[in-house]
Every structure is written in C-alpha cells, then in structure tokens.
Write a structure and sequence with these properties.
about 190 residues, mainly alpha, two-stranded antiparallel ribbon, 8 helices, 2 strands
Length: about 190
Amino acid sequence: MDPSTQNSTMLILVVGLVVIIGLAMWLYLKKQRTQKLRSQFGPEYDVAVAQHKDQSRAEIELQKRTERVSKFRIQPLDPEMRTQFTEDWRREQSRFVDDPRAAVRHADNLVQDVMHRRGYPVGDFEQNAADLSVDHPRVVENYRIAHAIAVREEKGLANTEELRKAMVSYRALFEHLLLEVKMDPKEMVRK
C-alpha cells in the first residue's frame, strides 16, 4: 500500500473513531439529562412528555422551567405567617360545610397568596403550575385537579363531591407550599 493511501485510510479511521466517540458521548449525556430530569420532576416528567408528544421537546421545556424558577427568590414563610396561613386554611375547611363553592374559591386564592408570599409570580394558571412543578413536582397535579374543578364550579357544573376533591387537592399543595426551603452553604437547595 502506498503512503498516500495509507494516510487516507488512517484519516478515515480517525474521523470515524472521532464521530463514534462523539455520538457515544452525546447519547451518554442525553441519557444523563433524562435521568436527572426524571428524578427532579418525577411524575411531572411524564406529564410533560405526554403534553409535548416528544421527549426532547419536553426535556427542553423542563429545563426552561428550571432556569426560570432559579431566578425567583423563593423563600420560606416566617413562623407567624405560616401560622396565619394555617389558621386561614382551617377557616376555609370549616366553611366548606356551609358553602363548599365559596370554600373552593377561597382555597384557590389562599394557595395563590402563599405562592406569592414564597416568591412565585402569580398570574396565568398554566404558568403557575409550570413554575410550581420545579419545586413541587409531586403535588402540582393536585393543583391541576383542583383548578379544573374550580373552573367547572364557575360554570355551575361541579357537584359537592368534586368540590370536596378540589379542597383535598388544594390542601395537599397548600401543605407543601408551607414547607421550609433548606439552605445549602453554597446555594439554595429546593426540597
């Protein structure tokens, strides 16, 4: 074999090897990203994949959510405020017996108030749910359930059992929002 053919063959082999190594690294990093997002978002990961009908798009969206929420100043509630919110919640729960529709409306407002006090911007429901999914992925589905029932209630379509389910769902999210944010010496870690 002449030297130029040998050099060409060697170059092709090196380029092929670099491509294979690059592809292997890309696949490894993609798998790592998927595992990290699945771990961070739990069931919300599957919700995002189903919503976007594409794993890569869903993962990009989940990363965008994480980046957006990382810019917020999420903070714990002071003990007095936590106590006040807890009392407000008890009042809404007891109101449910006499006026379930008003209790559900007030529970929604109370959840939004806690979100706001913790540092989440409050506005569009879908954005609120997306933001909450970063720090509270295990209970954000409760928010969606409660909100869907509240929307049905506004149209006069929700029955008392559905309103009870909304209250239970709001309570699960509410209790999660009252939890403290743990501080790591280097950075804030969301639990």
